[in-house]
Design goal:
Nucleoside Triphosphate Pyrophosphohydrolase; alpha+beta; 2 domains; Endonuclease III, domain 1; five-stranded mixed sheet; three-stranded antiparallel sheet
């Protein structure tokens, strides 16, 4: 199969069967960039819920750049991979400060933005500026590995370079076809050439797919070796005041849930007891709740919450945290398991 054949088939299929009514399908580089960052490691259905609220709060790059990080994280809460939100905020300030508020239209320049790698930069360049740049995310790698029977170790850099070269050779000649072609790659991998139970009968490459001919569809692409999941125990202390407000502290700017507000968190139960004692709370006054299991990418958190009323609040400084009422909770970016825990208490 020649490269033009692949591009022509894909574009024709996308125009007839692809997704064409997503809210970020526009030439506005700000909205394209925002959607591409949100869609990293996140399903379209989830992003469809967050994207409109984010655009309503920050309609352009200037509004996002002018916002506080806390406001950005608050709207991002629950979407996961919070480094994306922090990088998004930094990149908005780069666009305003370094590029005069206008997104650069070349991939190499776009790659200078925080949180923007080669594939994301290519997507922005293709959708917003019709540049002949190829994307190569997980969905695209799967399509290429199957259609062209590319067999290699996904962790091998040389194999990845081979896929980049192949992807570049398949680009359509006409620049104005780049949005449909790029969207077609995304749609084909996400809706037809799926990881498991691919819909080969609905694929525009069905009769020319080399993996299908060689009965390798279930084999390719090769799976990455699974990283070991680290088990980690945490202890939360939910301190409430007489008005029913809970004490929240901002997480460090590095690590799990960086920059979000959370309950005081401890690796050791003894440290939680010592912290509680500062506020006149004895061990017997701490109310233990059932443990919460929460899976991160390579980590399994086992969180045991304890709660109590803070008798002595002298050690709590507004420079390190805030008393937050249930009515104010929506104004704070909270990790998803904490939102569920506090909601369950309020409803209980």
């Amino acid at each position: 199969m020649t490269p033009p054949t692949f591009a022509r088939r894909l574009i024709a299929w996308q125009k007839q069967h692809g997704r064409r009514h997503l809210p970020w399908q526009t030439q506005d580089p700000y909205r394209v960039w925002l959607s591409e960052i949100m869609l990293q490691q996140t399903q379209v259905a989830t992003v469809l819920d967050y994207y409109p609220r984010f655009v309503a709060a920050f309609p352009d790059v200037h509004a996002l750049a002018a916002a506080d990080q806390e406001a950005v994280l608050c709207l991002w809460a629950g979407l996961g991979y919070y480094s994306r939100a922090r990088n998004l905020h930094k990149a908005a300030r780069q666009v305003v400060g370094q590029f005069g508020g206008r997104f650069p239209d070349e991939r190499l320049q776009l790659e200078k933005l925080c949180g923007v790698g080669r594939s994301t930069a290519a997507a922005i360049a293709a959708f917003a500026f019709h540049k002949r740049e190829t994307i190569l995310d997980g969905n695209v790698k799967r399509v290429l590995c199957r259609v062209f029977a590319q067999d290699g170790d996904p962790a091998d850099k040389a194999f990845e370079r081979t896929l980049w070269t192949l992807a570049e050779s398949l680009l359509p000649e006409q620049a104005d076809e780049m949005p449909a072609y790029t969207q077609g790659l995304m749609d084909l991998g996400a809706t037809v050439c799926k990881r498991s139970k691919p819909l080969c009968h609905a694929c525009p490459m069905n009769d020319i797919c080399q993996a299908k001919t060689q009965q390798l569809v279930e084999v390719l692409p090769r799976k990455k070796s699974t990283a070991a999941v680290q088990q980690q125990s945490w202890y939360w202390l939910a301190l409430f005041n007489a008005d029913g407000a809970v004490w929240l502290e901002r997480r460090p700017q590095q690590g799990i849930w960086a920059g979000l507000y959370c309950l005081p968190t401890f690796d050791k139960l003894a440290d939680l007891h010592a912290y509680a004692a500062r506020f006149g709370i004895s061990d017997t006054e701490l109310q233990e709740s059932p443990a919460i299991s929460h899976r991160l990418t390579h980590r399994q958190l086992e969180i045991t919450p304890f709660s109590a009323v803070a008798k002595n609040q002298a050690g709590l400084s507004e420079t390190t945290g805030h008393w937050v009422t249930p009515q104010q909770m929506a104004d704070y970016g909270l990790p998803k398991p904490l939102s569920r825990y506090l909601a369950a208490r309020d409803n209980g």
